[in-house]
Amino acid sequence: MKTAVKQVVRQDGGDVWLEKDLDLIREEPLSIRIQGKPYTVVMRTPGDEIDHVAGFCLGEGLVDSPDDFSALGYCDEDVNVVTATLTAERQELVAALIDRRGFISQTSCGICGKELVDDLKQRIHRLDRGSDLDIMTVIRSMDSLSDHQPLRNRTRAAHGAVLFDRGGAPLSAAEDVGRHNALDKAVGRLFLGGRLQDAAYLVLSSRASYEMIQKAARAGIRSVFALSRPTALAMSLAGDLGMTLACPDGKNGLYVFTGDFRLGGVG
Questions:
Q1: Residues in Cβ contact with 154 at an 8 Å cutoff, skipping those fewer than 6 apart
Q2: From 57, 75, 109, 247, active-site residue
């Protein structure tokens, strides 16, 4: 959205005040309902709500397959409310998650409010090796991230997540004011389209925190490359899961924290 702002320019003859129109990123609440009941509320950039909720449900462990949804859609055409209805079989399997009292999302806001870190490791398993990746292909993908972020280029305030195939072709890209939301949208689009298995690696504009690693693991993504360094807890989880985790070294290479065996014979 456009807004008028004041801009001050420092000059030798004194400050000069100008008026300028800037794009500001939108942020609105999204209420996610499961089985018709409120589940959580996230602050997000409007758009791609169905993909967003599908990716969110996958990351939370509520679904393993698009077939676990019996319905997924807006509530009375309100784009700020999405209701996910699970099949009877799936509802029975995840009843403990749905019925939690005082529930705090596992993956949308870090580990705040959790008593034990191990409580977060629900329904995620060690990843198989998969295919090796070419380091230069990965670096080019990281360098091209801004090409997939038109919203950030306008507002300077959006996070991005892009999923690539093994050859470096982008499969799904999403932006949002929230880094978790961007990842949910990118994953959800492939998940609902039945193409999540084609994704070989993930590039993030943000740091790789614990919950981002958990979301990637739930989606079966074996390699995560973030523009900022990971947290220590994220590195520990990535190592436990057999995931490749790396970030730029500030020059022309990568810091590889875990899973160097996937990167073209490194290690």
A1: 23
A2: 109
